């Protein structure tokens, strides 16, 4: 068993704060800076279109350049873009430019979520009762924009600048590993959430190993496979449970609530059972300062690379 764990973060922008929604954005920036200094692998922002005056964002895409500027090593990305409601050309154009401005640091995740009907219509600039599913087609289009540039240029007279430039790391996000064949066909890494649905743990290790093997044979390198989970890291399980009750979240399926030592034990077990290389932690702690304390504890316990003490005055 590999005792070293690679750990990234997923942020929905939710915080308990007396400040406005922009105050939450500033908290997220501080949190990302801390994660970067403490050796976390990646920092993902989720897209959610909620009817609430307290939301930090709906789409976080405009925050990515700022987070990339404020950090040095950590990968920054959206996980994910609700690709069914966007132009594949627009997404490819924006994320390719970001990756070339910040080489090897930009992630692009694809999610199949559905916003409320009116927002879906506005995003798509179409009038419908139910949006047709275009996710697979658009992922294929983005794959071709990035990896078949000459074919697309000749066939469609389209070039995504910079021509033959770098492309972001791309991930297919799902609540199972049943979609590995879609990931294979579009040259995507894959990340499975175990906290979005209330169901028993389904490891699907054989599917993960098959995906990695077939991907390596087809593309010449090993893809990334990760598991996203939720929880709260606190000095004790009792304190973590208390913070969970303050968080406003009702969804704590398969959560880890407790000290960093508990995270280490559970994640090492998950690493063996799932056959994955990395975990993505959705931190449900409602207090930003306590979140950063939790990051430091996790970094020390899990021996994350590039670990430094954090100045909590950031």
TrEMBL record:
Record InterPro entries: Bact_Lucif_Oxidored, Luciferase-like_dom, Luciferase-like_sf
Gene Ontology molecular function, alphabetical: oxidoreductase activity, acting on paired donors, with incorporation or reduction of molecular oxygen
GO cellular component, one term: cytosol
Gene3D superfamilies: Luciferase-like domain
Residue ranges of every copy of the Luciferase-like domain listed in the record: 8-118
Name of the featured protein: Luciferase-like domain-containing protein
Organism annotation: Cochleicola gelatinilyticus
């Amino acid at each position: 068993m590999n005792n070293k764990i690679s750990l990234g973060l997923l942020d929905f922008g939710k915080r308990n704060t007396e400040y406005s929604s922009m105050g939450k954005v500033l908290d997220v920036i501080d949190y990302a800076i801390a994660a970067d200094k403490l050796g976390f692998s990646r920092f993902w922002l989720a897209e959610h279109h909620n009817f609430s005056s307290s939301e930090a964002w709906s789409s976080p895409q405009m925050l990515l350049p700022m987070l990339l500027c404020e950090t040095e090593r950590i990968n920054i990305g959206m996980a994910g873009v609700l690709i069914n409601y966007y132009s594949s050309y627009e997404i490819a154009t924006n994320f390719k430019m970001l990756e070339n401005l910040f080489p090897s640091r930009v992630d692009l995740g694809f999610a199949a979520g559905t916003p409320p009907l009116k927002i879906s219509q506005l995003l798509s600039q179409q009038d419908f009762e139910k949006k047709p599913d275009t996710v697979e087609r658009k992922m294929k289009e983005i794959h071709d924009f990035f990896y078949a540039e000459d074919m697309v240029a000749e066939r469609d007279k389209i070039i995504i600048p910079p021509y033959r430039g770098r492309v972001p790391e791309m991930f297919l996000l799902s609540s199972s590993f049943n979609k590995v064949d879609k990931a294979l066909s579009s040259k995507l890494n894959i990340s499975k959430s175990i906290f979005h649905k209330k169901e028993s743990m389904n490891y699907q290790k054989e599917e993960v190993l098959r995906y990695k093997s077939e991907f390596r044979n087809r593309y010449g390198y090993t893809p990334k496979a990760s598991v996203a989970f939720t929880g709260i890291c606190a000095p004790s399980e009792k304190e973590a449970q208390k913070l969970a009750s303050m968080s406003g979240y009702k969804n704590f399926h398969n959560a880890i609530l407790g000290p960093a030592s508990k995270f280490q034990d559970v994640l090492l077990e998950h690493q063996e059972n799932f056959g994955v290389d990395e975990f993505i932690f959705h931190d449900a702690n409602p207090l930003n300062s306590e979140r950063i304390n939790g990051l430091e504890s996790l970094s020390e316990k899990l021996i994350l690379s590039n670990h430094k003490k954090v100045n909590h005055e950031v």
